[in-house]
Specification:
Strand content: 25-35%
Structural class: alpha+beta
Number of helices: 4
Largest sheet: 8 strands, mixed
Oligomer: single chain
Order of helices and strands: EHEEEHEEEHEHEEEE
Radius of gyration: 18 Å
Length: 247
């Protein structure tokens, strides 16, 4: 299954947990999305192929991920690890334009927009996605992000929140890893030293973003809102979404 979507410089997609698979299927169908079911797994998940979502394959799942340690009542982020990761803050997706990103994420998927800001790689428009944020990045013609949107498509980066950015950067450098970006805002291991993956670390939380912590969130008026950050967002007729997992 995974080989169908695998390619160099590409994450496979996102797994989004829902409370009712049949309801989710009807929700996607009503909005014109084609769904794919793998034989024998019809009661467990369905897929929205990547060609319908800016290169991001969506896996809509009913069950928890096997062996996910966050489901244990006693689980907490590792307090003693030098990186001090507190949780996944955002998933970045390349897009040809802000207009296309809003048409998909805000209009068709009905994910509330959190705001727009300029990043070194391009214009970032963020949307609430369950218990994290999705960052749609549009770059200028000829830029690396514009090339990604045209040639690779899909997820282009991850962003993790850390307790102490300076301490995390110092620990990575002590292990001989080259860094890019700014420690004061967000930085990453150079993708050339990280199997081509861009994984940002930051101590900051952008305005409007949900607090990290690997808690289940939802943007549906039919469910309890776990994240206070979503309480004022537009939630009408939205699909219930819990955890977001990156593959």
């Amino acid at each position: 299954m995974l080989r169908r979507s695998a390619a160099p410089m590409r994450w496979i997609g996102l797994a989004l947990k829902v409370s009712d698979l049949a309801e989710a299927d009807a929700w996607f169908a009503a909005r014109g999305f084609k769904r794919h079911y793998d034989p024998g797994m019809e009661t467990h998940y369905f897929l929205v192929p990547r060609g319908q979502a800016l290169g991001v394959r969506l896996e809509i799942v009913r069950q928890d991920m096997p062996n996910d340690p966050r489901r244990a009542p006693h689980w907490r982020p590792a307090a003693d690890h030098p990186l001090g990761i507190e949780g996944l803050q955002a998933v970045g997706v390349s897009t040809p334009s802000e207009t296309e990103a809003r048409a998909l994420f805000a209009e068709r998927l009905e994910w509330p927009e959190l705001g727009t800001r300029e990043l070194p790689e391009g214009c970032c428009t963020a949307f609430a996605m369950g218990d994290t944020a999705l960052e749609a990045i549009a770059g200028s013609p000829g830029s690396a992000i514009a090339e990604h949107a045209a040639q690779v498509k899909g997820i282009c980066h991850l962003v993790f929140k850390v307790r102490d950015a300076a301490a995390a950067a110092a620990w990575l450098e002590s292990r001989g890893l080259p860094l890019i970006g700014e420690v004061s805002t967000r930085f990453a291991i150079d993708p050339g030293a990280a199997h081509g993956r861009l994984i940002w670390l930051t101590q900051e939380t952008p305005p409007g973003y949900p607090a990290v912590g690997s808690q289940v969130g939802t943007i549906s008026p039919r469910k309890v809102i776990d994240r206070a950050a979503f309480s004022s967002a537009r939630r009408s007729a939205a699909i219930p979404i819990g955890d977001a997992e990156v593959a």
